[in-house]
Write a structure and sequence with these properties.
With 247 residues, this protein is an alpha/beta fold. It has a single domain, classed as Rossmann fold (3-Layer(aba) Sandwich), CATH 3.40.50.720. 40% of the residues lie in helices and 18% in strands. The protein has helices spanning 12-23, 35-45, 60-68, 98-119, 145-164, 184-188, 193-199, 208-219, and strands spanning 3-7, 27-32, 50-54, 79-82, 128-132, 171-177, 180-181, 206-207, 229-232, 237-239, 242-243. Strands 3-2-1-4-5-6-9 form a seven-stranded parallel sheet, with helices on both faces. Helix 5 links the parallel strand 5 (128-132) and strand 6. Helix 4 (98-119) runs parallel beside helix 5. The termini are far apart. The protein binds 2-hydroxyethylsulfonic acid. Keywords: Oxidoreductase.
Length: 247
């Protein structure tokens, strides 16, 4: 049985990916900050073997300890899904909140690095890493500043990881979604539900399961096939801020 390691598994795209990969016959290492949610998910996934890790990807020591203590049945990792990440705030650069900047750079960029560094020694020929980028990594938009920069870093890290890991036979992909309805906007707007709801107003956004489908496709390709970058929009979106809304 192949093993997939998913960060940010307690909600959104990570959770949906856990469901999709369980259906594809993977056993799962699910990492997240919210233990109770992970436990509920593990119950839902039964009889799929699941190992839970509770850590915040921003805490390097916690990441390293958790990965070093994986039990023998989960010691080899075939697929790593670097999904954990968030947007915090949407403000002009001159008004940015430093804590928001730190959270995005520490989580979206450094967290991805910490997890990859810890997990890579457990991966071998035929392994696949999928990094969750964003259309925000390809297009600048007003007030996106540090979030866009963090996702541009994910895009570039994906490309450079693919080069560095070529000799080891590890494939590396980036999935870059546009508008997906998850807790993303609630987190970005710090619980302001009205502002979050407005993001999806008059639009049928993607659901987490739509992105999970794409990830499932990437990680079930035959060994000679490497997806590199996949940008995924809902039908009503053509670019980061070009959206057709029903009035
Ligand atoms: C999420 C997409 O357009 O809000 O990463 O940046 S967007």
């Amino acid at each position: 049985m192949k093993t997939a390691f998913i960060t940010g598994a307690s909600s959104g795209i990570g959770r949906a990916t856990a469901v999709a990969l369980a259906k594809s016959g993977f056993q799962l290492i699910l990492a997240g900050r919210r233990r109770e949610r992970l436990e509920t998910l593990a119950q839902e996934l039964a009889p799929t073997p699941v190992h839970l890790l509770t850590f915040d990807v921003r805490e390097r020591a916690a990441v390293e300890t958790a990965v070093s203590e994986l039990p023998a049945e989960f010691a080899h990792v075939d697929v790593l899904i670097n999904n954990a990440g968030n947007a915090h705030g949407l403000a002009p650069i001159q008004d940015g909140d430093v804590a928001d900047w730190d959270a995005m750079l520490d989580g979206n960029v450094k967290g991805l690095l910490y997890v990859s560094r810890a997990v890579l020694p457990r991966m071998g020929e035929g392994g696949i890493i999928v990094n969750l980028g964003s259309i925000a990594g390809y297009e600048a938009y007003a007030n996106g500043n540090v979030y866009c920069a963090s996702k541009a870093a994910v895009a570039m890290l994906t490309r450079t990881m693919r080069i560095d890991l070529l000799p080891r036979g590890i494939r590396v992909a980036e999935v870059a979604p546009g508008m997906v309805e998850t807790e993303f906007s609630e987190v970005r707007f710090k619980g302001d539900e009205e502002r979050a709801a407005n993001v999806y107003k008059g639009v049928e956004p993607l659901q987490a399961a739509d992105i999970a489908d794409v990830i499932q496709f990437i990680v079930t390709r035959p060994p000679h096939v490497q997806l590199a970058e996949v940008v995924v929009f809902p039908a009503a979106q053509a670019a980061a801020t070009t959206v057709k809304r029903a009035s």
